[in-house]
């Protein structure tokens, strides 16, 4: 499996939540700014003492996407979708949209979180279309 960074001071809470298959968003309790990836300071107001994490709805919209047709290594099976997912909480995650029809994924498509397990109990958030092909 691909190398995934070890948790650090800024990301530990986020990674720990993935063990429970919870998608959390870091939010500043002072200014309300939401950010991803997690950091040790608020990029909205600069505070370091007011950051917390809140459960995400686990839904989002495809903000941008591309279909990778040639895998970079044997661990990836092409074709697959790499996408920016805009969550309703205001942050953007770079992830995969997992579907049987990668060419059908479009900007603006609704998606819902799913999980790709990692060997150490953590999981990577991936997304699946939140519609059936007939609805599109």
Question: How is this structure best described in words?
Answer:
Helices cover 6% and strands 37% of the residues. It contains 1 helix and 8 strands. The strands form 2 sheets. It has a 5-stranded antiparallel β-sheet. A 3-stranded antiparallel β-sheet has the order 2-1-3, covered by helices on one side. β5 and β6 form a beta hairpin. The chain starts with 11 loop residues before the first helix and ends in a 7-residue tail after the last strand. Residues 55-116 form the ChsH2 C-terminal OB-fold domain. This is Zn-ribbon domain-containing OB-fold protein.
Q: Can you write the helix and strand succession as a string?
A: HEEEEEEEE
What number of domains?
1
Biggest β-sheet strands, sense, barrel: 5 strands, antiparallel
Q: How confident overall, as mean pLDDT?
A: 94
Structural class: mainly beta
Please estimate the helix content.
Answer: under 10%
Low-confidence stretches: none
Instruction: Please tell me how large the radius of gyration is.
Output: 16 Å
Please work out how many helical segments DSSP would assign. Answer: 1
What does the overall shape look like?
A: globular
Strands of the widest sheet, in order across it, are 6-5-4-7-8
What fraction of residues sit in β-strands?
Answer: 35-45%
Report the strand count: 8
The end-to-end span amounts to 33 Å
Short description:
By secondary structure, this protein is mostly beta strands. The chain has one helix and eight strands; from the N terminus they run H-E-E-E-E-E-E-E-E.
């Amino acid at each position: 499996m691909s190398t995934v960074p070890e948790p650090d001071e800024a990301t530990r809470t986020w990674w720990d939540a993935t063990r429970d298959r919870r998608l959390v968003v870091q939010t500043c309790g002072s200014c309300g700014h939401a950010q991803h990836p997690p950091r040790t300071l608020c990029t909205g107001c600069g505070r370091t003492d007011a950051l917390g994490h809140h459960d995400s709805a686990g839904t989002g919209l495809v903000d941008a996407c591309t279909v990778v047709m040639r895998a970079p290594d044997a661990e990836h099976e092409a074709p697959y979708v790499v996408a920016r997912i805009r969550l309703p909480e205001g942050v953007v995650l770079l992830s995969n949209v997992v579907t049987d029809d990668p060419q059908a994924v479009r900007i603006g498509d609704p998606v819902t979180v799913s999980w790709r397990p990692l060997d150490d109990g953590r999981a990577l958030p991936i997304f699946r279309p939140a519609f059936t092909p007939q609805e599109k």
